Amino acid sequence: MDIKRVPVSIYAEMTPNPKVMKFVSNKMLLQTDSAEFRNIDEAKPSPLATKLFHFPFVKEVFISGNYIAIAKYDIVEWDAVAQEVRIFITEFLQDGGVAVHEDQLSPAQESPSEEDGAPALRTEDLGEVEQRIVDILEEYIKPAVAQDGGNIAFMGYKDKIVEVQLQGACSGCPSSTMTLKNGILSILQKMLPTLVDDVVAVNG
Question: How far is the C-alpha of 171 from the C-alpha of 3, rounded, in Å?
Fold first, then answer.
């Protein structure tokens, strides 16, 4: 019996970070939250990311849901290479290539871990305020950040300061400070008045 494959389509989208381009697929690439690969060694669980690192201008690869956010070095402009990358990703997925072997992801790639200098957070360890912060990030912040090809992970809460980790397009983005202060901080202060004084990015 002939099973018709749904053609894979990929479109490229600029993000607020000029160094990062988001490539959106019509199929899911990752079921878990996200995976970030900062070099080819980290990319072993992801055949797609491994291949992308063969492009000399690729600096980091971030995969989440149905998109890939690629950070580039300054040696080229996206105008010159975006089409080539888009076609490559389309053909890779069309040929049945696997974006990520999720069973091979270490916890460090799914969420911040002790390797980054912070223990991996477990929901059951969170206090009431911390849980509220996580819920607000999940419901209000993450979807907006994902639109821009990024992700945000809660890292800690101490002395009324919320610590987060920025991933994907948000990491190193010139406008991420504005996002933190104007967007995330104002939402948290509105929803948790008197409990949040500031938001800082631990990798900002």
Answer: 41
**Domains along the chain with CATH numbers:** 10-107 (3.30.1370.70), 114-201 (3.30.300.130)
Q: For 25, phi and psi rounded to 5 degrees?
A: -105, 160
Q: Where are the alpha helices (DSSP H) in the chain?
A: 47-52, 78-94, 107-110, 128-136, 142-147, 176-178, 185-191
Torsion of CA 53, 56, 57, 58, to 10 degrees: 10
Question: 100-144 pLDDT, tens per residue?
Answer: 998 888 765 444 443 344 445 566 678 899 999 999 998 888 888
- Other CB atoms within 10 Å distance of the CB of residue 17: 22
Residue-level pLDDT at 117: 40
Measured in residues, the chain has a length of 204
Q: Which two tokens stand for residue 86?
A: 């888009």
| CB neighbour class for 145 (10 Å; exposed up to 12, middle 13-18, buried from 19) | buried
CA-wise closest residue to 8 among 66, 82, 78: 66
Q: How far is CA 24 from the centre of its chain?
A: 13
